[in-house]
Structures
1.
Amino acid sequence: MRFIVRRLLLFVAALFGVSVVVFAALRILPGDVASVMAGLNSPASRVEALREQFGLNRPLVVQYADWAEGLLRGDFGTSILTGRSVTSLIAARASITFPLIVLGLLVAIMIGVPLGVAATLARSDAARTAFHVAGLIGGAIPALWGGLLLILLFARGTGLIGLFPSQGFPLDGWAAPGQAVWSLILPALTVGIIVGASLMRYTRSALGDIAGSGRIDMAMACGMTRAQAVTGVGLRLAMPQLVSVIGLTFAEMITGVMVIENLFALPGIGSGLVTDVGNRDLIAVQSELFMLAAFFLLVGLIVDLLHRALDPRLATAADATEVIA
Amino acid sequence: MIVLRSMWRRSEGKFALVVLGLWLFVALVSLFWTPQPLLATDGYHVWAKPSAAHWLGTDGTGADVLSWLMAGSRTNLLIVVLTVLFAGAFGLLLVAAMVARKSALAGASVVVIDALISIPTVLLALILAVPLGASITVIVVACGFGYGLNLARVARPAALLAARSSYVESALAAGASGWWTFVRHIVPNTLPVLLVQLSLSAGTAVLAESGLTYLGIGVPSGVPSWGHSLATSVKFINVYPLTVLWPGLIVTIVVVALNVFGDVLRDAADPLSNPELRRS
């Protein structure tokens, strides 16, 4: 109980800290927010008008209090460029980023788990080495390059085998679901291959740990073949561990797919944020950065609390297992 | 020397040493020689195919691809070294806080690390990039901070084990200061974890450089780096696909080498797993 209270207090403190850092980062710009937004060579009157409009001539503390109060009420401000509320911007972008992540994870699971099992089952040195090298290379490919290679292979028009569109998302969004999914295939494959390589390594090491504990041998002693024991017993035992890895990966991918979204010109959360930074849409950037940081802090909080709930020994277990190892 | 020799004996180690050695060598050479001067652009041979004058061809401004990649290896080396130093120093500082004898400090630092570790590097880089613009500092600080947190979390069990050992206790009882004991007795015990984590961090930093530079918040334009070469070729992927091959290939090979390097180095530098170190 004491842990939960302390962890919650820390979560609130971290939120406060992040909001201050984000606010400060935008205020220590060379020049001030208004002149940056107005752009070079704009008349002083225009800068002054902007300053007036967004209340930037008030003391910093007042500005911060105003923004923070808005955040507490769930009002994240308005984008200067588009005039839309930041909340609706994020929602529109999330409708692309989340399907992309889900598709990417599906690909990763379809690649990573079977390959991890196969790597565990592999007997010959050559096969083991091949799996090891494949895992290493898969994890070392820059996302940008992986995406480019897939475009070169499969993009409609220029690729060797023209199948999928390589750029953009249908303008009417999910009104045409088939088209929308079709445009997510190449980006999802790119993400899936890279994440799949790390999932393969996780699967293999989790299965290796379980085999080390003798439970695979036990199942085989009961008459299962090695393949049956690994897929039936081992994989099931490894499931909780894999699920928590996949959960964490899901959260990380929201910003992790930033490069991919940019490359495939998908207006998702990450690429939108980069665009806003480039456009100097600073009010939107401020709220978006805070929103994302808050989301990740929340994920961290949930993971921590879940671990506690699932394993009450955790407080001491971390040290204890190390002693045995 | 013994460590290097034991690393060389394994084929993985040979690969890592050769690749990283080449990287160092090319970075050094590029200081005073590249096949073509970096700013020499050959307007008549834009997007040229590989030839005797331009071994890997030219890019959209007629600049020599190989020369830019060679000069880029210098920037990437700088970024990796700075990031690893930052992450190592920051991580060890956190480890020191976590094994501190003041239990309030130790408890607080564990919880703070758990809370901060969930914030991704890219997000941190974006926050930094707003005031700083595209710069190497953004990459180094964002990556160093994130990897330092990770390092601290991974190295904690080994550090705790050492901190509670009888030899640390006797050192402290003999009047050694807390910091001296930490550097002399606790850090060496985390070395195996430290080496692996830092070399993984080095690899991730190379990948981060290419991603952040592509997003426009990494290495500033005009400064050669592998990410820069990759990003400039992206725009013309449909027209001149081959130029994109080289930078990506280099990054992949170097990252694999860095990841392997840590594993092999750990095995070779740990007296428990390398009998040769015990003999001497």
2.
Amino acid sequence: MDDFIVATLRYGTPLVYVTMAGVLASRAGIWHLGLEGLMITGACAAVLGVVQTGSLGFALGLAILFCVLGSILLWFVIEKLRANPIIAGLGLTGLGLGGTDLAVQAIYGSQASVNAPFGLPRLGPAFGPYGVLSVLVVLMPVVVFGLWVFLRRTRLGLQLAASGEHPFAARSVGVNPSRLRLLALCLGGVLVALGGAELALGSLRIFAYGMTAGRGFMRFSAVIFGAAHPVGSAAAALFFSIVGALGIRAQLVFGDWIPPDLLLTLPYLATVAGVWISGRLRGGAKAAPAFGELRDY
Amino acid sequence: MRRLLPIGRALAFVLLALVLCGIVFEFAGYSAPLMFESIAEGAFLNPNAWQHSLRWALPLFITATGVAISFRCGYFNVGAQGQFYIGAIAATFVADGLRGEPAALVVPLAFAAGIAGGGVWALWPGLLRVRSGTDEVITTLMGNFIAGLVLVYVSSGPLKDPSGTGQVMASRPVAAAYRLSTSAGLSPAIIVIALVVGVSMWLLINRTAFGVLCSLAGRNPIMVVWQGAKLSRLGLAGFVISGALAGLSGTIEVLGPNGRLVSGFLPTHGFTAILIALVASLSIAGAAVVSLFFGGLAAAGLYLPVLVGLPAAAIDIINAAIALFITARAWPGLAHLWRRRGGAAETP
């Protein structure tokens, strides 16, 4: 059981961080498909930072810097150039995947993965089987709760949510929705950088091409399932990680009957089921807020 | 002038994307002018370049046509990659299972299987979309990941080449009698298929009631419903046509240039096809021209690492940067140049 919880948290913590970034974007009214690319950028920057400088703080700073820069680029393209958020987001994802590939090849030649000499500090043997978890796992509930406080109890957070829900109303009371979207994307950039760092430096301590494996898209399902509420979405993300951990467990148990490659599709199937069920429960139009106005070209 | 403006705008944003790419290349430690020169050489300038570019352009054009149709209907089917894979898998099952039968029987069956496979892989997100309002962007993206894993399973399981080395997971080579082309990839058969698809889809979009309704449904779905058309049926048809065309190019790749099913082959085909459709602003004739450009880039993606020693990821970056900018409709300070009449573009 302990092993199972550890496996779930290992799989799920990066997903929760990227889900929180998605909650922020969703609340601010942006359909953020670039998170997959930002997450792989964060993972790559964290590992390369550790390998090149040997300083963990510098590596995390580098990851956050790149993710925030990417967020600002996406904001500029969506808000200022009025591009379609779906296609621009997919472009940012492609830029992240291609850019990390190029960076690794530029520095290490044609190498498929980069090993980090050390990673994020772990809890240590005092915690028994949970000692292998990194500090970012412990920080996760704090971040989720902090985000809830920010969105529900602070002036800025309420303005941010308002500018996503009804930009016109927000503007009529002197709030600039565009600027708050920039804020949401940048905060999300910080969170997704932490998620990428946890993914690469948390337990594996390796960067491999395409290692995010669609987490940046899976989190959509979590955000929709949790109605863009930080706690609900985090719970949904953890539920998907339980499915993922079950998939890994099932490979060991059912590996003889069901091909392991097909068991790996479980998280993706769960994501589809999650979006489908929440659409059924709440109505499709509500599940994808303001989607009609996004596709007006 | 009014017709030229979108083309000029697209070119301007492609140029902007290339500038961004140059910055990324310089940042990664490559010389940007050298990189662009090598890409241009690999795509269009070296003696055999046009042949290679056309080899990549034709399947991309077929997939892009499908993407354009589903986008025109107002549905973001971004699952062309998965539909392409499932079509290729279905075609390989037929070509591999019926080994030894006459080509006149197997090749049409393989095509039917590929088209049906791609269509079915687009049908389920379409059904979820029109029945339950499930967002099709997410379901089709997930479909890409699932299809990729199915491809890994199929090429290492049921269709595995028993004489394979284990390094590359691939199916048995398709028998020479069923092949549409050599591995060079250009043959009259493929050109004819692309022409037939292009012309018939152009007619479908521009000269039939279905095409007109599709384009209206994408712009103003409420009006189409009030006119009495079945929006869900139009949308489903758009999904299935786009999936079927992606499956068709999967079949062409397996029976033509590739000659067998390889795990994870052409991983950016679907994304490039989406780009082609968008750069061509969803016009079929435009897609034919634009796919030549992107086919050239794809050819350069093979040319770069082999002949110049530069990473092929450069091509992915160029494609991604173009995607980032291509749907942009304004430039700060210049918005008045292409504001729609009546200021419609200003309402949020």
3.
Amino acid sequence: MEQPLEDMAPPGFAEAYRTHSRSIYYLALRFLSDPQKAEDATHDVFLKAFRKLEQFRGEASLRTWLYRIAINHCRNRQQAWHDRHVFPNTDDAILENAVAETDSPLRVLEIKELGQQIQRALDALPAEYRLLLLLVADEQLSYEQIGALTEQSPDAVRGKLHRARKAFTVLFKKNA
Amino acid sequence: MKHQTKLSQEQQQQQHAAEQQTQSPSAREFASAEEMLRYDAAHTTVPPAIAQRLQKSIGQTGAPPRSWWRNLFGL
């Protein structure tokens, strides 16, 4: 099996890529809603990390640092896209009324359609909710780390996540 | 007669449920949005092309200061 980075980059970087690339790619994929953009973003994030390694002080974990680069990169890409397109407002009524059946299980009949259904639900969410859900899905991140990444308190993260979960569940069932 | 009819309905429901299980082997329930996203992430494959592009880009960039790698990875 080919491991192209092994021969080119220092051993630590190849290991970091193997450990964290799936999480960074998944965040970019579901946040940007485009596999090609996600591929470009993942490449750019790791290249930026490689070039700015001397700025990493070890105060945060490497994973958190990579997430921070990825979030900034994805937000910039999304903003550039929004600037060129008319974007419909999220249906606020759906989010406001997202109170029913939120504790019931989310049933997926065909696993192969799961990704598409998730993407449709995430696309309909406000970007902040989408990002919080994607970050909290990473079990290695604490509420404190998510708060630091999104520049808010852990309590604010918990409150918004509560609403984000409810909205996601309603949208997922609506789009299923 | 009514008893027979009810029994028949229950049998039909059981049979229907059994058929559904047979027909949808991939059906799955998730307790939360996070659980679903974790499952989705675990089944997402990183395109190999990214590593190849990185290799090329890093080759054009050059290696970072070696001292950094010692500090971070204890090399």
4.
Amino acid sequence: MIADEQMLRPQAQPGVPGNKKFLVASQWQLIRWKFMRHRVALICLVVLIIFYLWAIFAEFFTPYAAGSYDVDYVLAPPQRIHFWDQGELQRPFVYGMTSELNPSTFRTTYTVDETQKYPIQFFVQGEPYKLWGLFEGDRHLYGVEGSKVFLFGADDRGRDVLSRVIHGSRISLSIGLVGIAISALIGIIAGGVSGYFGGITDVIIQRVIEFIRSIPTLPLWMALSVALPPTWTVVQAYFGIVMILSLVGWTGLARVVRGKFLSLREEDFVMAAKLNGATESTIIFKHLLPLFSSHIIASLTLSVPGMILGETALSFIGLGLQPPAVSWGVLLKDSQQIRVLAEAPWLLIPGIFVIVAILCFNFVGDGVRDAADPYASV
Amino acid sequence: MLLFILRRILLMIPTLFAITIISFIIIEAPPGDFMDAYVARITAQQQTIDSSEVEALRARYGLGQPGYVRYLRWMGSILQGDLGRSMEWNQPVGRLIANRLPWTLAISLVSLVLVYAVSIPIGLYSATNQYSAWDYVFSTIGFIGLAVPNFLLALIILWLYFVATGDVAVGLFSDEYQLAPWSFGRVIDLLQHIWLPAVIVGMAGTAGLIRVVRANLLDELRKSYVMVARAKGLSESKVLYKYPLRTAMNPVASTIGWALPGLVNGELLTSLVLGLPTIAPLFVGALMSQDMFLAGSIVLILSALTLIGTLISDILLAWLDPRIREAI
């Protein structure tokens, strides 16, 4: 009998019409259910959450500080994690490295020394740090005792690439979020004013948007970033770059918002609100914005990659953030010297992180966009 | 049609005007004016400079005057074809740009052609063979193509090139043609080299356009007129090429407009990484040394060229689709 009922209602699971829960669920509940069914987007969301956790607790997740260097390990190759020693399964360990200076090329060559074994310790005591400049600590997620561990290799000053990638993700990943927050503010106000009031305001704002979209952004960003005073601190330069990126980035959102306002302002409930004496700002912020906030989130998610790419490109050219600030673009800048790169291809690892982050934001954005209108076709 | 073109050109004038203002702001943006930079450079070379000479130069360039006067003077000289003088190179900006702009244009154009030549057939295939194995392959490549920044792609290719050949830069010519006068052989040699930067520049554009072509064609193929055409016994290829493809091309043509700024961005980064003699290294050099007349002029020219490209695509679109001609 139970089997029969399931055959008759094969879609009896949450998030699908026909289920009782579906009928009483709130809009956000429906959006969440629909998003959860988008497997790739879900996986990407998890990846992004891991990335952001890394960035937030960078000091803990990395064995070394971003600037900590060791001249004994200049351009040391990535170490492999081993589990087997003489045919026996063991706790993960890395082999030590012996370095040798090649007298003719002055390059250091590293050979794996299988006599030295360093087990990887978890929650190990290492370099002291101050998390967010507030909490002191010296525990790191992993590390080795008596030597150093370079899972992604070391750069030309003997700094751990893995530590630098994770420390760099702080700037690279946050710049996307701060950037879209500013763009969202400009975009929602401009798009809202444009779509709600229409007329000459609309024409002017649309012209400005068209103008910004029709000129190549990179030369503009580059020129503007030169105008930032060189005496600025890292934090000031960071906000300068975010402002520059947002000045160009708000147009896409403004278009979405405007389109929605145009289609919604003729609805009956707007008329009803007006007749009840609601002010324009009440109508805009209380009644209209919540209605399409899911579309705004989708549009925002899809514009994060542009921000991340913008910062990475600027820093890569050398016009964005400057060392000692660490971002993925700054790290990739080190790999520009092609002779060094040929010796140490692991310097491109930050690039993999850039690609994965952008890919994930694109997929999550697609997922949110599909889920944004949960009534469309479930 | 003529009226449409005329209208478009008239609409472009305020935009061009806005671009000149932005370029002028860029020229003026760095702290201090360019005479300060000039004086600093002279004194750095341990030469003394007469302060009255500086004042004379200041007066000549109108540096003491308010912003709008300087802007008008600058605009006036631009309309006469004078873009100013580069402090760094000690040459007219116009000549510097003219030497390098053709390469930038060549790479951008070849890559534009490549973008369309590659993405339309692939989009067509993906739409007609939806959910086939190749459709998935192309979709995956498309997603990755959108996510890989082109400077990174350029860097990876340069690295492979270095490992394979030992050369540190991918040039536009082989050694024997580097300084040779133009000949048929040199053109062939250029084409043999230019495809690589063009492919890198066009990567993201191609990935994006495949999605546009596929989505539009799928929309068209679902419409009932296609079913009618099939029911009447038209051959499958005729059904496809005669109607849906033709209609699906309109949004594709309109993408040239938004593809161009992206191409210019990509070209800048790719040329920088590959070390090509285009406008990109000149631009970055100018920005680094605060040679702002050169930098501002490059922004001006790149933006103006992009606008002209967009105008051409609009005209093309109007020619393809009569509805647009009527609308504006």
